[in-house]
Amino acid sequence: MATSQFHCLQSVRVSSPCRLSISNSYRHVRNNFRRKSSCLVYASTNNFDRDLHLQSKVKTVLDSVKWDDKGLAVAIAQNVDTGAILMQGFANREAVATTISSRKATFYSRSRSTLWTKGETSNNFINVHDIFLDCDRDSIIYLGKPDGPTCHTGAETCYYTSVIDLLEDQQNGGDKFPLTTLSSLESTIANRKGELEVPQTGKPSWTRRLLLDEKLLCSKIREEADELCRTLEENEDKSRAASEMGDVLYHSMVLLALKDGKMEEVLEILRHRFSQSGIEEKRSRETQG
Amino acid sequence: MATSQFHCLQSVRVSSPCRLSISNSYRHVRNNFRRKSSCLVYASTNNFDRDLHLQSKVKTVLDSVKWDDKGLAVAIAQNVDTGAILMQGFANREAVATTISSRKATFYSRSRSTLWTKGETSNNFINVHDIFLDCDRDSIIYLGKPDGPTCHTGAETCYYTSVIDLLEDQQNGGDKFPLTTLSSLESTIANRKGELEVPQTGKPSWTRRLLLDEKLLCSKIREEADELCRTLEENEDKSRAASEMGDVLYHSMVLLALKDGKMEEVLEILRHRFSQSGIEEKRSRETQG
Hints:
By secondary structure, chain A is α+β, with helices and mostly antiparallel strands. Chain A has helices spanning 2-6, 26-33, 47-64, 93-102, 163-167, 181-194, 206-212, 214-233, 238-258, 263-275, 278-288; strands spanning 12-15, 19-22, 73-79, 85-91, 106-109, 114-117, 126-133, 139-146, 161-162.
């Protein structure tokens, strides 16, 4: 997929240091970011004006970045669905301009003194949906979706070494990431699932019990959904709603784990539905029908 | 809260460049990261040995970081619950050592040539739960929970400028962040809620209909929970489970928005439950009872 997308970019070339040679339209670039599935080629007679306008806009944005004395800014790539920080590199004007036009996270390699697009050798591109600048304009986020593991070691992210584990003398086998709460909960449930075959003494954890008893699990999911609804129907306070929502989410995640599903898949589905107004339209049609 | 936690740290001092003067125990620091609620003071006669052991461990970790020619590494602060990248600064050995001992995200200010702890003037500390190093050991994540807005402008994160918005000539009023999918969905729902008073022509969005009709919303939440359960009971495939899970999550989030609740609150509740084994124990007790 990554490769097939790349041919669209051949018409959007960047020459050093920041001369955009754009033979495609502004709308093309904008739509790239809007996640349209195909490459749009505009035959409009206004293309030349649009290109000039985009060129000027990109230059203004790049001029606003506070590049350091080497012409670089910190660039951080983040997974749009999971929130995982995938990697951090540095970007110069050309790298950001290339990322804008190609929507593939592109950096400047300080060791090789060259531009490089993450994935150009591994094919694990990071498909950038938007770029953010910080308040000081010297730090950049590439928010996007990776095609595969980002780290050259094959790990999902480059940040797999926990300092606390190091301080506790625990071997870090590359399977611990800076997990946000949702990912951490998912990981805990996955661990419980992985331990199901191991005989246990003592009181089993609640997650283990749910994993072993599908009837109990489904009964709890329906019960927690009902309790969440009752916080609205019976006008309970918002902290009660948040607590019940937590129960719904946790129990649903246990079911998802039993089905070998991942929260990242769920979030990707939601992103596609909402970016395409899918769920809105589908539901609206359903109800009107 | 931030201030009250700080007194615990007075016994854990760091002197330049990386001499840890630790009069408290290793366990103290470890428990700081384990989010124990109170400061533990160990009177053990083994404290001295433990301190030496910790000092040695911290030194080993700091030695393993590839500091640049100015003795710095990139340090990124991330919200453990939402996944939001809050800010990026630079850290030297002393900054990381201070963060390890104090669990407050601490950086090195290149402009002022001094150590600074985020929150020391605003009181909006970032309470660090764990620290991660990347594969090259030259980039650091402080994963933690902010006490309040991180940016000096009062914004939740410093990254509030979307390049795509800039390219589209849209004014960026500081209310657009690099939202991950869950936050983006929550933001969309909040926007729909904010528009409820605005008369609309044409077909209302599904979210608007749900927000306006509590009976419909609750009926959908119960229905989607039931459909999720049936993916397990009727042995449907995992993509179906992920899709139904998406429906459960979305509809529950609409209810949460109606109750003025936030997903960050839900995630914080889950984090506390699981870090304290709360939900596991509570449910286990409930069922056994």
